[in-house]
Design brief:
Distance between the termini: 32 Å
Mean pLDDT: 85
Oligomer: single chain
Low-confidence stretches: none
Structural class: alpha+beta
Strand order of the largest sheet: 1-2
Number of strands: 6
Shape: globular
């Protein structure tokens, strides 16, 4: 994450970002990005900071090979997050 990405997150930056030395990363919670929330109606994880998400997230094009690989390797995470939410 860059300084510009951190600034875009605004008031939520402290909640969503962790630092390792001088490097910043999105914080992980229960095996997924802290910005993801369970949408109860669909049972899917959705980004709560979509409009201000970091460039790395913007670069992962929806339905690209890299995106589909992420989905395949993490497909069970929304189910786990839903169980934790109830």
């Amino acid at each position: 994450m860059t300084g510009d990405d951190h600034a875009l997150l605004g008031d939520r930056a402290d909640e969503l970002v962790r630092f390792d030395g001088n490097r910043a990363y999105m914080r992980m919670v229960d095996g997924h990005c802290a910005a993801l929330r369970v949408e109860r109606s669909s049972g899917q994880l959705v980004c709560s900071t979509y409009e201000t998400r970091p460039q790395t997230c913007r670069d992962l094009a929806r339905s690209s090979g890299a995106c589909l690989g992420e989905i395949a390797s993490k497909h069970d995470r929304p189910v786990h997050a839903l169980k934790l939410a109830y």
